[in-house]
Structures are given as C-alpha cells and as structure tokens.
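Figure 3 (text version): structure tokens given as input.
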C-alpha cells in the first residue's frame, strides 16, 4: 500500500502525552503510521482504537493485542467507543488530510492527475458520488459548494458552465469534468483544479458536518486532562477546530457563566498552530499546509 509516513508524527505523538496504560483514539487510522507510533508507547494494559471508513485501511491493521480497529467514520466516535465498553479516553488524535494512498489511487477519483470515474467517496459503500453531485445538483447548490468549500472565485460561472454541458450529456469522468472546466479556469490551472476537486470531495463526504460531530464527541469522551491533537490542511477545517478549542462552539463566541467568567471547556496547549519543519516539507511536500492544534480538556 502506498501510504507515506504521517505528517508531524513525532510532534503529534509527543503532544498526546501518552501514558503507557492509557486509552487512546487514532480517529483517522489510514496507513496506521500514527497508530503504530502510539502502540510503541503503550504497555500491556493500554488500549488504542483506530477509526477509518475506508476499506483499504483494513489492510494496514497491526497485529497487536492493544489495538482495536473500528470500521466507521470518526463522526460516530462516542457511539462506537460505547459499543466497546469505553466511556472516556485519555487522548484523541486526528489527521484530517486525504491520505497519499487515496490521492495516488486513480480509481478513487480524488485527484485531477488521473483519468477515472468521478467518485471521491472515502466510504466506498456510501451512495453519493462526485458524479451525482456534478450531474444532479441544482446550479445554486453547485455555486454554494464551489464558493464555500473551494473558495472558487468564479463559482457562479463554473456552475453555469457545468449545468449547460450536462443538458447535452452526463459528465462521467475526471477528464470529462476538466474538459468542461477548461474555458472558465482562472489563475494557476492546478490550483484552480485543486480548489474545485476539494469542494466536491468535501460535499461528497460531508466532511464539515462530520468534523463538527467529531469535535462535539471529543468533548464528551475525553477525560479531564485528556489531550486532543488535530492536524488540518486548509482554513475550512482549521477555523472550526480553532474556534471549538477556544470557546466550545464553532462560531468562536465567548460564553460567560452566571458570574461573568468566560466558559472554556479546553485549555489550549498550543496558542498558535504548529507547522511542519522545513525538513519535513522538503521530504513530503504534501505536509506544507499542515497545521496542528493541541488542547487539554479541563
């Protein structure tokens, strides 16, 4: 499997402050790189739960009695931990990036570098695909997606162009979509394509809804003093993470108690987001946009 070493592995494991007998969650198991690093620190009584909805991730499950794989989206964190008899944990790690393996597998349809069906599902048993979004969504919905999730400047023009084309034929493949987009691409071509593909992927997988559900569950299942470590890759992810860790809500509103004290459910361990070293970015260019935030439940 083509999984690269995870981003900021040493920094994220250190930030978790792992106790050898603790209970931890790798909420984005993927290639298992973070999980294997955590397992090296755990003793016989320690436990690690790895969540992933991608079938390919199952091939990376380590043979370790301390590890339990949970075949689920991390938005159901609390539910599945309870099914395993766990109400609280000592630490949670989430790396929100699309894995190198997913990007490099042409058939998955995540990357504009390949020719494949428009898919982009992280959970391959899910119903909604990128093809459905492009061919079935109303023009206004496409505008919303491209604008909100891809920050595409000419979102309305792009949506109109797609809707005009699909009046004549279905847009089935990556290259079909790129061909339709070519006349309206603005600025650097690869950046524009990346923004559009990001927007479609976020919609297909309801990534923003899943992230909010996950963060709320983290507050529920973390023990007081438990650590939450989150690595994000664009402002759409980083903003709700930053707001939630600072204020316990996604708008970043300061809520005061009866006595006027600001209620903060987390203590921020990192005031500013940590970023990868220059050496790591040189070794793995996909790490360049990573931001890591760490908080401790009060």
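Below: residues designed for each position.
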């Amino acid at each position: 499997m083509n999984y690269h070493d995870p981003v900021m592995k040493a920094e994220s494991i250190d930030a978790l402050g792992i106790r050898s007998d603790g209970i931890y969650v790798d909420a984005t198991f993927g290639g298992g790189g973070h999980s294997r690093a955590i397992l090296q620190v755990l003793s016989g009584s320690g436990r690690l739960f790895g969540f992933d909805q991608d079938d390919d991730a199952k091939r990376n499950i380590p043979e370790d009695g301390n590890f339990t794989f949970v075949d689920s989206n991390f938005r159901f964190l609390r539910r599945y931990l309870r099914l395993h008899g766990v109400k609280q944990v000592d630490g949670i790690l989430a790396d929100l990036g699309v894995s190198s393996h997913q990007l490099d597998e042409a058939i998955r349809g995540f990357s504009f570098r390949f020719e494949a069906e428009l898919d982009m599902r992280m959970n391959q048993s899910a119903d909604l695909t990128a093809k459905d979004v492009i061919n079935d969504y109303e023009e206004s919905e496409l505008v919303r997606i491209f604008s909100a999730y891809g920050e595409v400047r000419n979102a309305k023009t792009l949506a109109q162009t797609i809707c005009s084309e699909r009046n004549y034929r279905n847009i089935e493949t990556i290259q079909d979509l790129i061909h339709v987009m070519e006349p309206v691409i603005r600025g650097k071509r690869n950046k524009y394509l990346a923004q559009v593909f990001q927007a479609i992927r976020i919609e297909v997988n309801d990534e923003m809804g899943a992230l909010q559900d996950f963060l709320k569950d983290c507050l529920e299942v973390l023990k007081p003093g438990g650590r939450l470590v989150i690595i994000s890759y664009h402002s759409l992810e980083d903003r709700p993470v930053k707001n939630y860790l600072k204020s316990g809500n996604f708008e970043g509103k300061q809520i005061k108690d009866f006595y006027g004290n600001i209620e903060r459910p987390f203590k921020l361990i990192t005031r500013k987001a940590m970023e990868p070293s220059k050496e790591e970015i040189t070794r793995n260019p996909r790490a360049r946009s990573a931001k890591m935030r760490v908080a401790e439940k009060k």
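Residues 279 and 285 are 10 Å apart (CA to CA).
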